[in-house]
Amino acid sequence: MRMLEVPLQIFRYKAGEQPHYDMFTVQVEETAHVIDAIDKAWAIHDHSLTFRRACHHSSCGSCALRINGVEKLPCITLITNVWDGHSPLRLDPLRNFPIVSDLVVDVSGFFQRLLAANMTITRDAESTLPLTVDELADVVPSEAVELPDNLSRFNRFENCIECGICMSACPTMATDDKFLGPAGLAAIYRACQKTDDPDEKAHLLALAGGEHGAWRCHSAFECMEACPQAVDAAGKIMALRREITANRFKRIRRR
Amino acid sequence: MSRPHVIVIGAGSTGAATAHDLALRGLRVTVIERGEVASGTTGRNHCLLHSGGRYCITDQESAIECIDENMILRHIMPDLLELNDGLFVAITEADLAFKERFLEGCAACHIPARDIPVKHAFDMEPFLNPHALAAVQVPDGVFEPFRFCLAFLATARMNGAVVRRYNEVSDVICSGKSVTGVKVNNYLTGKTETLGADLVVNASGPWAGDIAEMAGVKVPVQPTAGVMVTLDCRLCNMVLNRLNKPSDGDIVVPQRATSTIGTTSWKVEDPDLITIPPEHVEKMIIQGEQLLPVVRKIPMRARMAVARPLIVKSDADARTVSRTFECFDHASSGVDGFVTISGGKTTTARVMAERVVDMVCNKLGIAAECRTRDVPLASYRLFFQGGE
Questions:
Q1: Of the ranges A108-122, B137-151, B285-299, B303-317, which one carries the lowest mean pLDDT score?
Q2: With contact defined as beta carbons under 8 Å apart, do A193 and A201 qualify?
Q3: What superfamily does domain A3-105 belong to in CATH?
Q4: ipTM of the assembly?
Q5: Domain boundaries along the sequence of chain A
Q6: Mean pLDDT to the nearest integer, B201-214
Q7: Set of chain A residues whose Cβ sits within 8 Å of the Cβ of B205
Q8: Chain B positions in Cβ-Cβ contact with residue A49 (cut-off 8 Å)
Q9: How far off is chain B from A139, nearest CA to CA, in Å?
Q10: Per-residue pLDDT reduced to its tens digit, B279-328
């Protein structure tokens, strides 16, 4: 197996110290993901390098960071897909979160936003296959995987792994730190869809229609672009706006 | 006397469940974890909530632990589980010949198992190998290991436990024949600190031997690595297992929009330096194709490897390894105030914690009943409230 010598330029910060970058060169297999390179830098060079990781297969969402400035999950990002073969691979923590240490950010704000809708991310015990056998035969062998239209029904909040990438990529977050954020609003939208209780729905729509809710979004669609899980938060924010408006009309007509 | 202070080393499933149990029994608890929660063995897990079917012939003690804990976890962490059941599928005549023994094994371990018409299995699982000969349905499920640990730790925190992430134990401190604390490198501050304790629980999984060595004792834990491959498509509704004795690559676990095939098994010296052998990845694909022939056509999303802590039992001539767990009171080796809990599986973390905390309470002279069977866990999302 061919080995790669990968130079890593990693953001370092400890409380009370000046932030800076450290360089580490690590040897990894050609098939390695970025998380494997960070893991090696930590294991061989420096145990004081702090980073988040748990599952190594994009289910926990903990390892999210920026690779050459772009939000990614290093556990599913192949080095060969992001490295040009010679320049250092730059690793930075997520934006729009307080930095705790090195690549570790404080994600409490993200989870706080998800508590509002209290949506679970596990799937119901229903049929959950995304494709039928025939659909799969159509889709898989092609180079560009173009998903059938009816698949969009699966682009929903339950896909979310709570990685925080959408909040990091969102330009609105940078202008309003109380913005409910893409995942938070996608969760509210899904909770609205699932509830049968009109009071609960009114409460959720009021939250989404509030000062830091759906109207704050600049429609930059960065969250949709960056999301590793196809949650389509931007689409959900647009749908929420329609719901909020429709609900207002309903109330006016009732007067 | 003020409440005793117990340090738990490791925030994987065992350490997290142990911290929760200790806090619930009124002890003061500090968890020390060198990385993120579940950043070791637990995180890189197959995510299988075992029904016990996998072990019902080869390791019935484990199988019974699994089904009992499976039922308890459904009650204490309902929001964290995907309960779609599992199928044990016979592909070959040899598998089919195994079916009666399997059903007997399930019955012996009180695992509810249903021999379903294979046509019914094809209806439920359209990608299943069309040559399948038989299928048995069992209450397997799926969990997300990171959140599994967070839920235990969030609850422990509410009951007063302190969780120190990014703190690595550099030494175990002894006074005479007794452990009195640990020395840690706090990587958040760059400082070295000494933490005192009335007792230290070593819940560091495959690293248990390294920690035990700091206290001058040995534990029979063999780090044993395994490879798993995650595909970028959910291919089954239920967990699919090969109806036979456990072997490499005989299980596909669907989790949300992915499918994970596992696993292999080889002994490693250093759990921090595991290289994924490419032939193991290929083996997962070949074996996975037996259950789901479409496997090779699906893009790979991730590959991972991690060491599990297997307990080596030296009571037989041949060294046999069980998937059950064991608590070690190192007082028997002349070091008091120090216990190790290792082996087991994430599915059985709660009962592992119950046993080790029984041992801890007994050593500290505390009479407190375990309540973790009945107390529902707090939302994992609450773990992050309140900072480091």
A1: B303-317
A2: no
A3: Beta-grasp domain (3.10.20.30)
A4: 0.95
A5: 3-105, 108-254
A6: 98
A7: none
A8: 187
A9: 10
A10: 999 999 999 999 999 999 899 999 999 999 999 876 544 445 567 899 99
- The more confidently predicted of residues A177 and B322 is A177
A140 contact residues in B (CB cutoff 8 A): 233, 294, 297-298
Q: Which CATH number fits domain A108-254: 3.40.50.1000, 1.10.1060.10, 3.40.190.10, 2.60.120.260?
A: 1.10.1060.10
Mutate to test the interface with A, among B153, B303, B346, B379 (most CBs of A within 10 A): B303
Residue from A17, A20, A60 whose CB has the most chain B CBs within 10 Å, to mutate: A60
Q: Which domains does chain B have, with CATH numbers?
A: 1-47+144-219+323-388 (3.50.50.60)
A-contacting residues in B 316-375 (Cβ below 8 Å): none
Q: Are B368 and B26 in contact (CB under 8 A)?
A: yes
Minimum-distance CB partner of B302 among A1, A58, A101: A58
Residues in chain B: 388
Token reading at B376: 């529902």
pLDDT band at A124 (very low <50, low <70, confident <90, very high): low
Mutate to test the interface with A, among B381, B382, B383 (most CBs of A within 10 A): B381
B185 has a chain A CB within 8 A of its CB:
yes
In chain B, which residue's Cα lies nearest the Cα of A122?
B82
Interchain pair A108, B34: CB under 8 A: no
Distance CA B309, CA B312 (A): 9
| Mean pLDDT lowest among B35-49, B232-246, B340-354 | B232-246
A249's tokens: 């009309």
Angle between helices A181-194 and A233-254 (to 10 degrees): 50
Query: Is the pLDDT assigned to residue B387 strictly greater than 60?
Result: no
Residue B301: CB partners within 8 Å, gap ≥ 6? A57, A58, A76, B230, B231, B232, B258
**B5-9 sheet: strands from edge to edge:** B162-164, B28-32, B5-9, B199-202, B338-343, B325-329
d(CA A193, CA A186): 11
Counting other chains too, the contacts that A36-39 makes at CB distance below 8 Å and 24 or more residues apart are A36/A79, A37/A6, A37/A8, A37/A79, A37/A89, A38/A8, A38/A10, A38/A74, A38/A91, A38/A103
Contacts A52 to B, Cβ<8 Å: 35-36, 39
pLDDT at B2: 82
- The average pLDDT across A179-197 equals 93
**Helix A181-194 with A198-209: angle, nearest 10 deg:** 160
Q: CB of A60 within 8 A of CB of B144?
A: yes
